[in-house]
Specification:
about 230 residues; alpha/beta; 6-stranded parallel beta sheet; globular
Length: about 230
Amino acid sequence: AHVCLAYDDPAGFRAQAQGFLAEGLAAGERLWYIAPKPPESLPGPVRFVAVTDAYPTGAVIDPEAQIGEYAAATAEALAGGYTGLRVVADVTPLVSTPAQLATFTRYEHLADRLICDSAFAAMCAYDRRLLGDDAIAQLAAMHARTNADVPFRLTACPPATGTAALSGELDLSAADLLAGALERAGLATGRAEVALDASGLRFTDHRSLVQLDDYAGRHDVTMVLR
């Protein structure tokens, strides 16, 4: 599971986080809670990690290095007899500048890939009051599940299915969001073909198809929409 939770009420976030962690506890997973400060209470098996210890707060993160750390932590959890690693992370402080936001959306796509391929699960929480709807939409579009109102999602999928998956609806209102998501996901890096699993796409207009074609042309790849 890769969940983006946009919250306006910290108490509501904590309730959602506890439910997400309870699912992991029942499944035998190792549990982490990452936030700027510890909550008032946590179930006994949950480990609190300060966000400053888990991420380079105040700087632009290295997406690949950060994913490598989570991959290693997941492998360590499996070796310790757990069924996987489940993380709740309030990462609002990590996307406070445009440069941080751009890089973190790249990281979120890589996290979605790790979650698709391994025993890792994460809830990424963002304070809408501090970030605003536009930043929330850019982040939420990279998650398989979200409570934010976004027209589409660009997510990881099994390699046999494609390079990535598109779900939701594509129209003129989604044009800028789609352009940013495609670039930040880095789908064309090192590939001659980008295959998109569109089985979850309910609607697309012709402008969006032209936009995908333009992306393919700029990166000299073949775009396949399945």
